[in-house]
């Protein structure tokens, strides 16, 4: 067996995923993600998805939906129209743990000026997790950018935050997963559409969350 094939098989066993254009919904660690979504009448495509690991433990599946497929962080942040990150929990986790990880991800990938600009929205974002005692295995979060409205977060289909209006803040959220210091380096590459067989190093995580 050649090295590239071995890497591909190892990636599939690990539950990572890449979706080719036109492919049907895919199973990632037992979670089925649709290849398309619709936000405010706009059709989105699944750009890529995979598993967030903490050490050896699977934490959640995350998928990135965009109007058009993009393969770099800069292009994702610049793409016009609606966007979505879908997160499905693979284990129970406290609101404090998840909220701390998300907030750390924002701070790790935002400069001082950005953090000062978003302070009010950061406070409201933190309040979201205070309102949810615990996330259970199978719970689904969607983090949407809706043009003309703002960032909307839903838990199992129920909205849990008022709109957060600044596109810059939504981009700060995206950087949790696709920024320079992502929560999981392999997950970043998969969300940006890379094939598992093209990722030739072991899954890596930063020290946040």
Quick recap of the structure?
This is Lipoprotein transmembrane. The chain is an alpha+beta fold and 209 residues long. It is built from 7 helices and 11 strands.
What does this molecule look like?
This protein has a single domain, classed as 3-Layer(bba) Sandwich (Chalcone isomerase). With 209 residues, it is an alpha+beta fold. Strands 3-4-5-6-9-10-11 form a 7-stranded antiparallel beta sheet. It has 7 helices and 11 strands. InterPro entries: Chalcone_isomerase, Chalcone_isomerase_3-sand, Chalcone_isomerase_sf. Keywords: Lipoprotein, Membrane, Signal, Transmembrane. Residues 1-24 form the signal peptide. Residues 27-193 form the Chalcone isomerase domain.
Features:
209 residues, Chalcone isomerase, seven-stranded antiparallel β-sheet, two-stranded antiparallel ribbon, 28% strand, disordered N terminus, disordered C terminus
